[in-house]
Amino acid sequence: MIQIYNNTEEINVKAADLFVAAAEKAITEKGKFTAVLTGGSSPAGIYKLLASDLYKNKINWNKVYIFWGDERWVPLNDDLSNAKMSYSTLLSHVPIPAENIFEMYKDGVTPEDYAVTYEESIRKILGEEGKFDLILLGMGDDGHTASLFPGEAVLNEQTKWVDAYYLAPQKMHRITLTAPLINKAKQIVVVAFGEKKTHALKEVTTGAYNPSLYPMQLIKPESGELLFLVDKSAAGTN
């Protein structure tokens, strides 16, 4: 489903409302809320809104468990770190226990080894079902999501929940949730705005199925909901 909004502010409010609603529902039903954050610049406004007085007191943060969809393999204090951005905009401003936060990076280990460790952490919190309550995703201008980039072998992964690899065009390692795990989620919310997203959004949602070129097409929930929150520019309706 695609919902079109006038601007990013409206998208931020909708996404924050969805986050709160999902948290309340999950905590009421099973005593905890498991969420996956996305990186890049797109979600910063959402996170700041969730950290505001208007929103943060609506959530029992003691029962929230935070993971990430992907990460650049850089230290947590690096400006390229998705975790650093998430802390500065959200996590450092809400009373969530440190042990409930699972950063996608660790000093002194290889990204490949940590991918195995990260998957173990997911299984410990979610069980073998691996069903996150809510996954937030962005979409690149090229149609990638998380670190599922066009033409990369990770797109064909069927068994691992988490994978890591060297992304040659960016000259860096990445660690990412895989499509099979993402597709287990109860709710997947994709945020995209700006005219640079127009082509990819059109191809992903209405074009021929070619996930090696537009990896976002791999995101097809097994039984959950997939929702695109986009602005008029991304939708090409300006």
TrEMBL record:
Entry annotated with the keyword Hydrolase: yes
Per UniProt, the keywords (alphabetical) are:
Hydrolase
Residue ranges of every copy of the Glucosamine/galactosamine-6-phosphate isomerase domain listed in the record: 8-227
Kindly indicate whether the keyword Isomerase belongs to this entry. Answer: no
Question: Which biological pathway?
Answer: Carbohydrate degradation; pentose phosphate pathway; D-ribulose 5-phosphate from D-glucose 6-phosphate (oxidative stage): step 2/3
EC top class named in words: hydrolase
| The reaction(s) this protein catalyses | 6-phospho-D-glucono-1,5-lactone + H2O = 6-phospho-D-gluconate + H(+)
Signal peptide bounds: none
NCBIfam families the record matches = pgl (TIGR01198)
Q: Which family does it belong to?
A: Belongs to the glucosamine/galactosamine-6-phosphate isomerase family. 6-phosphogluconolactonase subfamily.
Per its record, how is this protein called by name? 6-phosphogluconolactonase
Query: Source species, please?
Result: Flavobacterium ginsengiterrae
